[in-house]
Write a structure and sequence with these properties.
By secondary structure, the chain is α/β, with parallel strands linked by helices. The protein has helices at residues 15-26, 56-63, 79-84, 86-106, 142-162, 189-199, 218-230, 247-258, 280-284, 293-318, and strands at 6-10, 30-34, 47-49, 68-71, 111-115, 167-172, 174-176, 202-206, 212-213, 215-217, 237-239, 245-246, 261-265. The strands form four sheets. The protein has a seven-stranded parallel β-sheet, sandwiched between helices. The protein has a two-stranded parallel sheet with strand order 7-10. The chain has a two-stranded parallel sheet with strand order 8-13. Helix 2 (56-63) crosses helix 4 (86-106), helix 6 packs parallel to helix 8 and helix 8 packs across helix 10 (293-318).
Amino acid sequence: MFKNKNILVTGGSGMIGRQLVSLLLSDDANVHVADLNKPVNMSNSINFHNIDLKDFSNCKEICNGMDYVFNLVGIKCSPQVCLERPADIMGPMLQFNTNMLEAAMLANVKWYLYTSTVGVYEPAEVLYEDDVWKTQPSRNDWYGGWAKRMGELQCQAYEKQFGKGKCSIVRPANVYGPYDNFDPENAMVIPSLIRKAHDNKVLEVWGDGTPIRDFIHCRDVALGMIHMVKNKITEPVNLGSGTGISIKQIANIVSKRFNRNIKWLSDKPMGDSKRVFSTNRAEKYGFKIKIDLEYGINETIDWFLKNKSIIDERYNVFK
């Protein structure tokens, strides 16, 4: 399907993007990556474009001649940063959403994939795709959640106006893996715990470890994206394990690897108590994740240890 096709991946130097690019290259696609960050150790087979996607003229230029667009661009940050600097998150994300979708539709691409987030959901025991518009996003993801919801709604607006959908929408759970963000200030749960365990004699963890989350390896996310595009799925689809695991269990895996004791900071915020995806829809369309969580965390630790000098250099450059 993708052989010799021109495919654009925005945000392609991130952890999901790198996995996606690798899979597309294995299908003999002509891959273009648009990102602000200069890629490290990325294949010479890609066409890299260092451009700002907040500028609509850049988006039109980069979409011209593309057959498929995978829009992964976004701003990944910790819950604390989202709450403290919401304008830095919401404004650019709305621009990314609008510019890229409009440019792709003007270029008449064959198919467009939009990457949403678990942050669109209101807290619930199980997160079902069709419940999103009956509720509001969690206050812990209020601004980013609404921005991603607007991106989904824009895809649906094009489908409604033109009577035919050519957009896939995926909602990944908590994503982790190689090339994750290990920035001490902005890292999410798994990379944050890995960094802390490596840098300190005691692993300090916010909260009491009871919150439950759904985690998915970045390679599984990339496989899910390709699956939805190949099968032309137009309704939103959760990409996750469908199985909840506590922060305590994650911390235990990381602490065991680094031989660290855990100190629970119970006075610190913990976020929502539970976020677990229903994966019924994904499985109905023939997709299920492959990578075991403990294996995936240890693979991520191996990558972190091997690339720590590059990680630290990038952090010092962009902080």
